[in-house]
Amino acid sequence: MPVDSYRYTGPEDSVDYRVYMDRDTSKLQKRKDRGKDEQRKVFLKTGVISQAKGSSYIELGDTKVMVAVYGPREIPKRSDFSMKGLISCEFKFAPFACTTRRGHQRDAEEIEIGLLLKECLESSVRMNLYPKSCIDVFVTVL
User: Fold this and answer.
1) pLDDT of residue 130
2) pLDDT tens, 96-130?
3) β-pairing, 63-74 with 133-141?
4) 37-66 confidence digits (pLDDT tens)
5) d(CA 124, CA 72)
6) Which residues face 67 on adjacent strands?
7) Is the overall model pTM greater than 0.85, yes or no?
8) DSSP E strands: which ranges in the chain?
9) Is-contact 63 141, C-beta < 8 A?
10) CA of residue 21 relative to chain centroid, distance
11) The sheet that has 86-93: what strands, in order across it?
């Protein structure tokens, strides 16, 4: 059998991804308020926080999220000079947002999601346009 040297076919001993798929759909919860071909209800509103430079309120089904962006603001003089600006992200679940009540202190999950959010925003925002400045992003799940 001839070998196709122009295509990368993957490792010889790979396993098809469908082997690991759980085919039992009876475990999934069925939503009575919408059909299979209907999407969740979406509500978006911008400018909900007047002091923020940009803010929005998002509802997707039962999930409610409030986002506020402050800045760019100047970094204090005591910090090092940088031609690239900084992004600081804080992600927080409201104490009443989950089935188990959360405390006011940020836990490991919130810190990790905040770091992921920061990485995503750093790759999409051109911070070289904001030297010596900082943009603060606050996300709260209600």
Assistant:
1) 87
2) 888 888 777 788 899 999 999 999 999 899 888 88
3) antiparallel
4) 888 889 999 999 999 999 999 999 889 999
5) 15
6) 56, 139
7) no
8) 42-46, 54-60, 63-74, 86-93, 133-141
9) yes
10) 25
11) 42-46, 54-60, 63-74, 133-141, 86-93
